[in-house]
Amino acid sequence: MPWLSSALVVDSCVEVSASARLPLPLAILLGANEVLSTADQQLVSLVIDSERDTERVVRYLRGGFVDGAVVVSAREHDALLEAMQRTTLPTALVGRPPQGVEMPWVGIDNAGAAAAVTQLLVDGGRRRVGIIAVGLDRDSGADRLAGIRAALGPAFDPGLVVERPLYEYAAGRDAMRELLDRAPDVDGVFATSDAVAAGALEALLAAGRRVPEDVALVGFDDSSWARRCRPALTTVRQPARGLGATAARLVLDQLAGIPAGPDGRLLPTEVVTRDSA
């Protein structure tokens, strides 16, 4: 029997540290590996963190070393996806494809989930809601911001949006400091990931703000950050392992000759209410 392998490519936009017990990409990887292992496929993990990485990974994928690929967190105008569209390698994306890219994909309704957790802030009487918007060159960041805007309606204030490129703790801390400088009267904050929200919480507490009495705070992912924060974070739980598993099945289907169209599959999310909002 020939040796079969599939690649999981993470287009890096997150902080992976020992203090975050199970970052989202790792949970996705474990879900994919569970399905691929059952099919006697060896998972190979490839991380992209620079243009040089992209070029090397493209050469690797084109070199016949793997039978399929799962791509996580692709950017707009992503050179990797542009190159992969010119190959016949069975591929599935975790996350909605950028405009102009047609590939099988699985994801969540980022806009709907963000709107739902933002509504908790609105229903709680928060009128000055700040947003730490991260990864706007990806479907996750752009769609979450769109969902927040929809939920806030006329109360949405572009001046209360602070942008950062990476989903990381330090980004949340520094962005929260900037937001407090801009708007000391902010009374609610949506941070578009739990790691970012944890950093924001540090900055709020250091500034003497009580959470949630003075400022309600919500995150996204329901990662270990959400449970370890004090107060624990209200957030959105997304099925990270399920995303990886579904993407892996999409690749296996293609390997078995089952056609996969460009229509995506959306997995359910859940708002988890804790003490921060």
Automatic annotation (TrEMBL):
Q: Where is the Transcriptional regulator LacI/GalR-like sensor domain?
A: 119-276
Q: Which organism is it from?
A: Serinicoccus chungangensis
Q: Which UniProt keywords apply?
A: DNA-binding, Transcription, Transcription regulation
GO MF annotation terms: DNA-binding transcription factor activity; transcription cis-regulatory region binding
Q: Which domain of life is it from?
A: Bacteria
InterPro entries found in the cross-reference section:
LacI/GalR-like_sensor, Peripla_BP_I
What Pfam families does the record tag this protein with? Answer: Peripla_BP_3 (PF13377)
Q: What is this protein called?
A: Transcriptional regulator LacI/GalR-like sensor domain-containing protein
